[in-house]
Specification:
Length: about 325
């Protein structure tokens, strides 16, 4: 019998995952849950086996999925995960885990107690660029890193509201913070400055900062800065550049650029990181072997601790210790 997957959320990213899942052998997209029956009914179109629901509990009762994908905006996390924990249903959750730390910490407690298999949508970890960088860094001394997410403002309504998304650093730049943790290790302290420059005057209802920069002290002794803006008319640079005694390793969304010994080498990503992320989770469900899952709920909480510390530092004007 095919693995039955329930999907919560009917937006852009639910469809990205549903398309990948429905092309896998032995996997069936069993249901979509939307905020209304109409939205769910629209979402199931094109997925022959999927049923539409407007209520998570009802979907879980009737579909009895083997696992659930949670693809909802940051503000909508908490209740969904609690239900899955109570029923012992493994889940893949899109980043970030929430708009603040309180809910994820509570959910993590339940996830650990239930021994649930989880995966968090930090797909950069699954890119060829990040995997090759990890290999190279084993034989280099890391000095520092510069991360950046310089872009435009996503147009979904919740993104521009602080209580909807948590702001750019928590919602989007979290990918770079996670990549930093994955490749350079844990962060001990953050000092950040965020500001409102232009977007408040351009769009209605904008409460998120539109520029920000954070200085991070790592446990290893290395240092980093991660900056972001969402005030550009179109997307610019996104990536993490790592400086070692042998040269520069630059991870971009689609490639790795290495500058060492006077030579520049460019390696383009060949594999689809989202496919790898999904395959690792599905393999885990089938076999119980979760070793291919590169980011779990527990690990993602640690990334959220850093992005949350950055927001608290920007609000208070003083450095903040991570995890306190
Ligand atoms: N990993 C990545 O590369 C990546 C890319 C895009 C989005 N995402 C993440 O995926 C999440 C969703 O993003 P999106 O672009 O699909 O947003 P979206 O606004 O297009 O879709 C979100 C959907 O969730 C639904 N929803 C809200 N509350 C719900 C609830 N309680 N129950 C059921 N459905 C609910 C909304 O109605 C909407 O259909 C975000 O956290 C985002 O950061 C990750």
């Amino acid at each position: 019998m095919a693995l039955q997957i329930g999907i919560i959320g009917t937006g852009w990213f639910s469809k990205v995952h549903a398309d990948i899942l429905s092309n896998m052998d032995g996997v069936q997209v069993a249901a979509f849950v939307g905020t209304s029956q109409e939205k769910a009914a629209r979402a199931v179109q094109g997925y022959a086996s999927a049923k539409a629901y407007s209520n998570t509990e009802q979907m879980l009762d009737e579909t009895k999925p083997d696992a659930v994908y949670i693809c909802v905006p940051p503000f909508a996390h908490g209740e969904i995960e609690s239900q899955l924990v109570q029923r012992g249903i493994p889940f893949l959750v899109e980043k970030p885990l929430g708009t603040n730390l309180a809910t994820p910490r509570q959910i993590l407690h339940g996830v650990k107690k239930a021994g649930l298999m989880t995966s968090a949508g930090y797909h950069f970890r699954y890119t060829d660029a990040a995997m090759k960088a990890a290999e190279m860094l084993e034989s280099r001394k890391i000095g520092m890193a510069l991360g950046y997410w310089m872009g435009d403002m996503p147009q979904v309504y919740w993104w521009r509201q602080q209580e909807g998304s948590g702001g750019q650093f928590i919602e989007q730049t979290t990918h770079m913070v996670d990549l930093l943790r994955c490749l350079l290790g844990e962060v001990d302290e953050v000092y950040a400055a965020f500001a409102h420059r232009a977007m408040k005057d351009i769009h209605e209802g904008v409460t998120v900062h539109d520029v920000g920069t954070a200085t991070l002290k790592l446990r290893s002794g290395a240092v980093a800065t991660i900056s972001n803006t969402c005030m550009l008319p179109e997307s610019d640079k996104v990536g993490l550049t790592i400086y070692t005694e042998q040269g520069v390793i630059d991870i971009q969304p689609d490639k790795l650029i290495v500058k060492e010994k006077g030579r520049l080498t460019e390696i383009r990503n060949a594999a689809n990181p989202y496919l790898r992320e999904n395959e690792a989770f599905i393999h885990g469900l089938r076999t119980g072997d979760a070793s291919g899952i590169l980011s779990t709920y527990e690990d993602a909480v640690k990334t959220m601790e850093v992005t949350d510390a950055a927001l608290r530092s920007a609000e208070s004007g003083v450095p903040v210790k991570v995890g306190e």
